Amino acid sequence: MVVCADGFSMSVQAHDGAYCEPRRDAQRKYTLVEVGFPSAEEELIMPWAEDRNQPTETVYGYVPVDVVTNVIVKHGGIVEGQVPPGVVPVPRLNND
Is residue 94 part of a domain? Predict the structure, then answer.
């Protein structure tokens, strides 16, 4: 689970059982990753929602890593958790 500075959270995974590319374990870099169960509806990932009617209770398959990085930036950077290789692990942004 990735937690962002503003409290937004989401699962971000990439492995042989996830909706990702490449669909293998322990890759040096992924181009598409699986996002799941965000804490709030996030418009940037809605095109990949498995169930658009329940945006916080669904999986988002094959989301481009740059989209996930943009979500992290939008929510102030990561304060807890890790992302798969390919997603930029943007730390908490200083908004002072």
Answer: no
Q: How many structural domains compose the chain? A: 1
CA distance 38 to 59: 9
Note whether residue 12 is domain-resident: yes
Token reading at 96: 């002072």
Give the pLDDT of residue 94: 80
The order of strands in the sheet holding 78-80 is 59-64, 32-36, 9-13, 2-4, 78-80
Q: Which two tokens stand for residue 28?
A: 């040096």
Residue 13 has pLDDT above 80, yes or no: yes
pTM above 0.90, yes or no: yes
